[in-house]
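REQUEST FORM: STRUCTURE PREDICTION
Request ID: SP-0412
Submitted by: Lab K.M.
Chain count: 1
Length (residues): 169
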Amino acid sequence: MNGTLAQWLNKLPDATYSQQLRGPLDPMADRLSSQMLVTAGLVVKSAGGVLSKIGASACYGAVKGGLFTIAASADMPALSGTITQSAYNVYCYFQDGAGVRTSGMGTESATLSAVKFPEFPTGKTLIGFVLVINTNADFIGGTTAWNATGVTAVHMSPTGPFDPSVLLT
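STATUS: Completed
RESULT:
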């Protein structure tokens, strides 16, 4: 595609149509231009720890079409927020074009399929996420160890565009 989405929309004969189309297309364009290109290989930083890190290899991604790299073993931000005992939830890690990493927590649910991801920030790439359930007690981000009794934490590092809010129904 030669040119940006905005340039194409500005060529429409009616500016009203262009503005109406930007609403649904802007978030999709952001996801397509802001994504991981090589897996982050997220892992637990250390036994008994509460942090995650990039795996053994550097990873690459793009934010708004600009490439970036994250060094092997780079720390992910500390987590915050509590997941109720026996509920499922996700913590997501993001990076912006300046290399600033942030985390966000989804909305918990009693069933895995009903977990809601946090809203993905515009201009940031999803590095990965951790699916968490603690059957023994509440899980407190930044406090409860990944390997605590009852905790199941699955680190996931998707590549390519992923935005669970882009739905057809």
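NOTES: Residues 61 and 168 are 26 Å apart (CA to CA).
Reviewed by: T.R.
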